[in-house]
Amino acid sequence: MSLYRPPRIAASEITPQSYFFSRRSFLVAAAGGALAAAGTPAFAEALTASKTGYTVDETLTPENDVTSYNNFYEFGLGKGDPAANSKNLKPTPWTVKVDGLVGKPKEFGLEELLAMPLEDRVYRMRCVEAWSMVVPWVGFPLSALLDKVEPLGDAKYVAFETVVRPEEMPGQSGYFQSLPWPYVEGLRLDEARHPLAILAVGVYGKTLPNQNGAPIRLVVPWKYGFKGIKSIVKITLTDKQPPSTWNISAPNEYGFYANVNPEVDHPRWSQASENRISEGGFFGANRRPTLPFNGYAEEVAGLYSGMDLRANY
Ligand SMILES: Nc1nc2c(c(=O)[nH]1)N[C@H]1C(S)=C(S)[C@@H](COP(=O)(O)O)O[C@H]1N2
Ligand SMILES: [Mo]
User: Fold this and answer.
1) Among the atoms of ligand 1, which is closest to the Cα of residue 211?
2) Over the stretch 76-120, which tens digit does the pLDDT of each residue have?
3) Whose CA is nearest to atom 7 of ligand 1?
4) Phi-psi region of 89 (alpha: psi -120 to 50; beta: other; left: phi over 0)
5) pTM for the model
6) Nearest atom in ligand 1 to 135's CA
7) Looking at residue 99, what is its pLDDT?
8) pLDDT tens digit string along 13-42?
9) What's the CA gap between 224 and 271, in Å, rounded?
10) Domains delineated in the chain
């Protein structure tokens, strides 16, 4: 099958739109607690104004859209539900347990995760529902965390789990109950180690709002958005392909790989084009063509050489 190669991502400069947040201090909890109060004197400056080259020369989706148009079914099914219903989620204290086929299993406290070398990453974000955004994340490479636990030779996959707190997440109980909890996701180990795969702890220069997956979530920009599991509490190295929530729920609609691919339609809609949120015209002229691997083919296509990309959707 033919793989269209999109123009290379501008690898030189942080986009002008993002100057404001790379200049701004990204504030990290010096002591536990009060993460939501970023900006108070209790926080220490941590963002290394790094220029990794991972940016896109496209207009950033406005912050208000990034933080109010969300998918986070633990808080309801509507796009506005996560922002409206996530006020009670407590992102501190928080730990992420990393275990399984590793030499040094460890439970990381949030302070330790926020002390990882943080970077600005402006990424395209493409939801399987055919809308997209351009989002300025703050995060660190997932590979940096994996290095700390020393994966064993037989580790082939990485499994992720979202927190289960029905008392703070109304979609996990009662009327709004929708998916099986916890939300789970997975990557092949080589995908997880790809430099584009990050754990995000911030967006728009601030700690993550609850609706975006506070305090820490996965971002894999060449895959559909549902792979970007939010509010992670557990990461497990394994030798078997891990379950993923949408794949369990509708295996004929959502695959394990879920690489953005305009040539493989969802059974109920086309994936050939997308609506960039805030540019309007979901069905109209403003739709833009969807790029293979969401525009990251040059970086990641090699991960899948020899695989049938139509079958491994
Ligand atoms: N735990 C959890 N993670 C999740 C989801 C969810 O419902 N629960 N939704 C996914 C989907 S479908 C998308 S498109 C992205 C949306 O991320 P955003 O709201 O920050 O744009 O989160 C993903 N991560
Ligand atoms: Mo999505």
Assistant:
1) 19
2) 999 999 999 999 999 999 999 999 999 999 999 999 999 999 999
3) 72
4) beta
5) 0.87
6) 21
7) 98
8) 333 333 333 323 333 333 233 343 443 222
9) 11
10) 24-304 (3.90.420.10)
Distance (Å) from CA 225 to ligand 1 centroid: 6
What's the confidence (pLDDT) of residue 285? Answer: 64
Residue 21: what pLDDT? 38
What pLDDT does 175 receive? 65
Q: Which atom of ligand 1 is nearest to the CA of 203?
A: 20
Which residue's CA is minimally distant from atom 6 of ligand 1? Answer: 72
Low-confidence residues of the chain, pLDDT below 50? 1-50
Q: Output the known binding site.
A: 70, 73-74, 127, 162, 212, 217, 228-230
* Residue 6 confidence (pLDDT): 34
**Which ligand is closest to the CA of 128, given by its number?**
2
Residues with CB under 6 A from ligand 1: 70-74, 125, 127, 162, 183, 212-213, 225-226, 228-231
Q: Which two tokens stand for residue 309?
A: 């990309």
